[in-house]
Amino acid sequence: MVERTFRALWTVLFRWFASQRPGITCSTCRVRGSGHGSGGVGDEASADRNTGLGRRVRRGNGVWQQPPAGETDTTELAKKTQNPVSDLISVPLQFNFNTGGDLNDATSFNLNIQPVIPFKLTSEWNVIARTIVPIDSVPGSEGVSYSGVGDIQLQLYLTPATPGALIYGIGPVFSFPTATAPPLRTGTWAAGLGFVALTMKGPWVIGGLVTQLWPISDTGGDPRTNLLVLQPAVNYNFGRGWAMSFSPSITANWDGSAGNQWTVPLGLGITKTTVFNGRPMNVGLQYFDNVERPQGSAGYQLRLAISLLYPEKK
Fold first, then answer.
1. CA-CA distance, 300 to 290, in Å (whole number)?
2. 20 to 30 A from 257, CA-CA: which of 9, 30, 34, 175?
3. Residue 117: how many CA atoms within 13 Å on its side-chain side?
């Protein structure tokens, strides 16, 4: 039943994607660049000419013509959403449905609200502030579920205002003991380090993010927050805002017992950057199978992500 529900959700979202007109134009969201080189759309022209993502594309009659305005806009905006340290204000909403495995037919739900706000520190450096507010509902025994806010995280990344071929950011990460539901409470104040690096080559955006949180003070006993997160990212942009995405969140709980530390999901997803009622947004659907997981956890995950985008107006 759960798998049929997942397939139905995928079908509905895919049909919605297909119903969108290609090359939707947003007159208020011209993007300054893809986040590398000098940041101009023109810098992509030569590298992307063969993929149809540059300034000019070859039509059926063999003549180079200017593409529709929205075609380049949505592609460049899609690349910015794939860059964790871009100068793009966004509010991602990540809906995670975890089931199967040791949960059987039960479902553990997680909504991550992740506002991202860039700040100009100097003429050469930006600070990217990312807050993660989790809203969780986890199944308990005898059909009882527990719902509430999880531990809130704050991530700060220092990144060059004008990045080169290698885009990077580094900075502190913090976790606060804000969980309200009993199964979610850690009582742990934690801090650590985060690092992100990526590069953009034509339609490809390839990189990864690493964070490590160590417990500083703990008043709640087990579980504690002693967590490593590895998030490789491989994105291929087809143009007109469409992209294929590989971006699993691999975690290691260092306080777990032997054989119960790692969670390793593998899967793929598809995303679409578009404009809805004048608001640029990115919508994506991803499926992951947990090939390595601790006891008592879900076997697979369906993720629906909706990001509200606020690009700088020209």
1. 5
2. 175
3. 6
User: What is the DSSP secondary-structure string of 52-113?
Assistant: T-SS-EE-TTS-EEPPPHHHHHHHHHHHHHT-TTSS-EEEEEEEEEEESGGGTT-EEEEEEE
Query: Which class does domain 1-30+40-54+79-97+109-117+124-138+152-256+266-281+301-314 fall in?
Result: mainly beta
Say how far apart CA 266 and CA 249 lie, in whole Å.
9
pLDDT of residue 141: 80
Rounded to whole angstroms, the Cα distance separating 278 from 32 reads: 19
The residue behind tokens 């993929």 is: 51
Question: Beta partners for 300?
Answer: 99, 289
Q: Which residues of the chain have pLDDT under 50?
A: 1-3, 5-6, 10, 12-14, 16-17, 20-67, 69-72
CB burial class (10 A; 0-12, 13-18, 19+) of residue 247?
buried
pLDDT for 182 equals 86
Encoded tokens for 55 = 């300034």
Model pLDDT, residue 11: 55
Cβ-contact 106, 138 below 8 angstroms: no
pLDDT value at position 80? 93
SS3 273: strand
Task: Give the containing element (helix H, strand E) for 121.
Answer: none
Q: Give pTM, 2 decimals.
A: 0.76
